[in-house]
Amino acid sequence: RDPGAMATGLGCCLLLLLLGGSAGQGPQAEEGPWGRTRYEAVKKHLGAVGALSKQYWQYLACRVWQEGCEGEEEEEEVKKEESRGHPDWRLLLACEDFLEGFSAWYCSFGKCCKTGDCRIVNNITGLKADLDRQLHGQHLAKEVIIQAVQGFLQSPRPRKALVLSFHGWSGTGKNFVTRLLANHLYRDGLKSECVRVFISLFHFPHHNYVDTYKAQLEKQISETVQLCKQPLFIFDEAEKLHFSLLDAIKPFMAQHGNQADSRRSIFLFLSNLGGNTINEVALDFWRAGREREEISMEYLEQRLQLELLEPSENGYARSHLLKENLIDFFVPFLPLEYQHVKLCARDAFLARGLPYTEAALDEVARMMVFVPKEEQLFSAQGCKSVAQRINYFLS
Question: What is the 3-state secondary structure (H, E, C) of 329-347?
């Protein structure tokens, strides 16, 4: 708490009241600037200001630190009515605006409000910069994610929650992008009270307990929606979710769900499903001598959806998410090539503050396994084990 800031703000309010009140008494030239009439007027104002300053200090303590809030709601209207009875009530309301502004400023530095909303930052500029600098070989993912998230956040009244489904091989950047999203939307990143992460085999390991999981999941999502106006829900290994769990959260993603208003929510599903289709498309373009940047969403997304709809044991095909078009964007993550692995190795060296050479980056990249067997084109693990390879390289 900063008493200096408090004193400055309250001092401004006092000065406003004194100047406004004394100016409203009419000219007192015959008695001098501090004649008896002016003195009585200022004395009366000081008494009123002293009482009101105490009220506003209590108001500020309640708003910012949640102290002395007992009966605050009942007294709020009484205080405003009393203020309106004061000849300078407009100035007093201006002081309240100052306190509201100070409360918002203070909240930006710490957890001082009942919800996690004061920790939301929505830094799209920073997100785009980090994606451009750190996400390699994923022109489609960059474009779709920025446009989808930015458009959703700028919409004053979205019709439904934003639902993105990330697909591709392991190590292509799905979890990395998820972490970047959380870090740029919330000051506390993945630790934010507005962010909930669910890992299929960790949180819902036994299909015999699906009914219990459904009740728990619905409760956790409802509580987060009530706590935060812009919650983020992440489902990792989504293809391993039981289809009834996906259907249980369907109302939160639908346009007219019966659940708490979740239209400001963001749902992310991460899955290896569809990776083979994505890789086949990338390989076909390479064999045809075309650049991977020529692959378009229109060409790839349709083929990806067809694979997801094929009858299988995955929850996507059996749930209503695809049938009812609740997923807004299927985001493909392309397989990574040799030059992309080198860039990942460079980033890993820089993250540790270590010097590197082109020869060192080549050596790390050559330690990875590349497929198909004939072309040796795509890293089988993407960039997932690059950091561990650097440990081996340095030892």
Answer: EEEEECCCEHHHHHHHHHH
Strand order through the sheet with 329-333: 195-199, 232-236, 266-271, 162-168, 329-333
Q: How far apart are CA 229 and CA 152, in angstroms?
A: 13
Amino acid identity of 178?
T
C-alpha closest to that of 385 among 361, 355, 364: 364
pLDDT digits (tens, 9 = 90+) for 10-42: 555 544 444 444 444 444 444 455 566 665 665
Q: Which two tokens stand for residue 278?
A: 């994505």
pLDDT per residue as tens digits for the range 197-210 = 999 989 998 888 99
Q: Which fold has domain 124-333?
A: Rossmann fold (3.40.50)
Residue with tokens 């083929």: 303
Q: What is the pTM of this model?
A: 0.71
Cα–Cα distance measured from residue 316 to residue 110, given in angstroms and rounded to the nearest whole number: 40
DSSP collapsed to 3 states, the chain: CCHHHHHHHHHHHHHHHHHHHHHCCCCCHHHCCCCHHHHHHHHHHHHHHHHHHHHHHHHHHHHHHCCCCCCHHHHHHHHHHHHHHCCCHHHHHHHHHHHHHHHHHHHCCCCCCCCCHHHECCCHHHHHHHHHHHCCCCHHHHHHHHHHHHHHHHCCCCCCCEEEEEEECCCCCHHHHHHHHHHHHECCHHHCCCEEEEEHHHHCCCHHHHHHHHHHHHHHHHHHHHHCCCCEEEEECHHHCCHHHHHHCHHHHCCCCCCCCCCCCEEEEEECCCHHHHHHHHHHHHHCCCCHHHCCHHHHHHHHHHHHHCCCCCHHHHCCCCCCCCCCEEEEECCCEHHHHHHHHHHHHHHCCCCCCHHHHHHHHHCCCEECCCCCCEECCCCCCHHHHHHHHHC
